[in-house]
Amino acid sequence: FAINLKERPATLTKRAFLSDVSTLFDPLGLLAPVTIRSKIWFQEIWRSGVDWDDLVPDDISAQWLEHRSGLLQLTKLKVNRWLGSGVDGSIIELHVFADASERAYAATLYARTTQNDGRVTVLLIASKTKVAPLKPTTLPRLELCAAHLAAKLVRVVLQSWTDISCPLYAWTDSTITLAWLQSHPSRWVTFIANRVANVHETLPPQCWNHVRSEQNPADCASRGIKPSELLNHPLWWTGPTFLKNTCCFWRQSSEKIHTTELGVKSKVRAHVVNSNEHWSVIAKYSSYSKLRRIVVYCLRFIRNIQASLHNRVEKLFGMPNCQEIADAENRLIKYTQLFYFSNEVSICSAKRPLPLRSCLVRLQPFIDECGILRVGGRLKHAAIASDMKHPIILPKNCALAKLIVHEIHRLTLHAGPRIMQAVLQRRYWVVGARNLIRNVYHNCVKCTRLNRNIANQPMGDLPVTRITYARCFIRSTVDFAGPYMFKFTHGRGAKSTKGYICSFICMCTGAM
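-> structure tokens emitted (512 positions)
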């Protein structure tokens, strides 16, 4: 390696620190354990909020100057770039290691070459490092990010090895990450699932193995070491010692490592029941008559089942009768009132006065013999129907009231809002009925199509003679009509005379 450092800056600012760090050119990442220390220090400078032309903290400055003086020792470093391939019968394997610490994560790639005579050579190909994000995260997630980085590193190297086919092996010292990678991505949350799916595109689950932390060379790149220690570091340059053994030995040793605590949360399957299910059923239908008919058959089914259990023969069949339809309507009304006016229904059932804050206090409601909330008033002795004396109370925002208004609009042959309100109040008192009726009327497709505004032809401009001041009858128009038959006398024998009408109209004043 050739290290060409600039002269030591007089003042170590944030800008000078970044410029000095960038002079070390290492595209393959062979010096990753040394360069990662500079990245970590620069992240600490960034976290401290120092401006570009401000001095870096003293502790970082002292560490960097000591580290900078040791970089010159890397000029003694020589790396063998021949992987031992090209010999007949030689087998090349790619082994990638991933590891993470609280401050950085890294991936290292090694080539394991087996010669014809059984000799095994392990050499470093490339490595990649990244600092941990500023946002705090858990160590297993950083280990997963390291595995993701390892997959990307392998993908880049394989793009340049188009004519070589070699087996792939991936290693990590995190059992939680290993469990994530050896399972389907659908089991995990989005953050984990996305990275596991991306890793599986290059490194399938069967490629992953476990390695102890002290034998993981990526640990050097994730924590950083001094330049003097890197010169003679066998773990970094030639990988762990077990790679020089036979394949069956290190694969068996990796399979023995197992853990039962993988950090996998058990899935809880629960059946969620909607307490307002019958309201969603009402809103599911667009016709009140259809909804009423469905409720009739549901109640009939319940009665027939009860009759079968008690060995009764009075089962109902055929078309619904009037009593069944009335029972279905009462059920729908009572359910709606209990949902929206539960407090008022309970108070009126106890025959107590409503509080003044209630929206129904002016209606003087009461509960009839069927348990339905109705409007009170002073029309008890009126010679009209009972539903008109005491209409049924419904809220304006309920699905049942909307269906009833739609049904009235259809039965009145798409009448206007006033007729609809008059028909509605024969039996129902809907709170805020006018706005509901107008909403239904204006949203009716047939009414909108038939009552649309007809386009009018725009009139042309008036001539100049019509808008210019002048003396009367200076400019006039002539209209001639006829002939008309006139009689100058009355009685038998009067003769008719043909006549004509000629009119002169002033174009300025309109005089005739």
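The first strand starts at residue 91 and ends at 100.
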